Fold this protein.
Amino acid sequence: MQAVYIEGHGGPEVVAVGELPVREPGPGQVRVKIFAAALNHLDLWVRRGIPGIELSMPHVLGADGAGVIDALGDGVESFTIGDPVYLQPGLFCGRCEFCQQGEESLCVQYGLLGEHVPGTFGEFAIVPAVNAYLKPDSLAWETAAAFPLAYETAWRLLMSAGGLKPEESVLIHGIGGGVAGAALQIAKHVGAYVYVTSSSQAKLDRATELGADVVLDYTQQDIPTAIRQHTSKRGVDLVIDNVGEATWRDSIESVRRGGRIATCGATTGNNAVTPINRVYWKQISIHGSTMANRAEFEAISELVIGGDIQPIIDRTFPLEDAPVALERLASGAQFGKIVLTTGATA
């Protein structure tokens, strides 16, 4: 099969597009003929190498995908050959105490497609049957591939970790990325008042079109000062920060007394300095969040399938142009999700 893979870690030069063997599904697994797959920053981190994760090479990138069931492993009775599906990228054991509590993203063996096992950037992918969901005809292949990782992450980040309520205010750093764009859409769906930041006027204009109430250029304004001006010195109820080092101070200074900060990533670095006195004096709650449990994934899926939220797609590339797509992602030029298509048809 044609696939996008790495045989070692490094920069763009390690990404290859070529032929790899087609694998057979094991017990409880299905093989999916991939029609569309979406990029995430995860793919860049896997390419560079993630400390503590050793991969069997060659390793196929990609966490998100959609296609049709092509083969069934032993014991799979929930699907038939040809069923259209989209994929939940989070892998879990289903047996540990957290899985038994319905908190699969806390699973002691938690992993991700494309990070811990071969992923979706190929003509075929092997996944546990429990990670495949029937795709309705109304959901386009590109959309089905684009939303799972980013939108489930944003849903848990805002609704579970962040506890966002209608009419509250939320600051979202770095609008344009997949999670930030999803967070904007979800926050507006909930009925929140939304502030977003970017250094790109084009991205700020697009955010306004999507419903952002206040847009802020962090190269032209000090964000905490701007937030104080807009909120009569109060601050926002919730800050969504997946940027990390570059925005952490702004997050702490922009949130109100007794407010919340929710974080799911650190694209600019992990080693942010936290002024502890500001955290306890303002009585700030800081919440970490990763991916979502099954119930949360199904909640955001329902909104996407029902048309309440339309995932943002930046650009679509054929599979063979994956290196170009990855460089667009790395440059930060995108607004929304970048999607690969394999050219397969039902």
User: Anything to note?
Assistant: The radius of gyration is 20 Å.
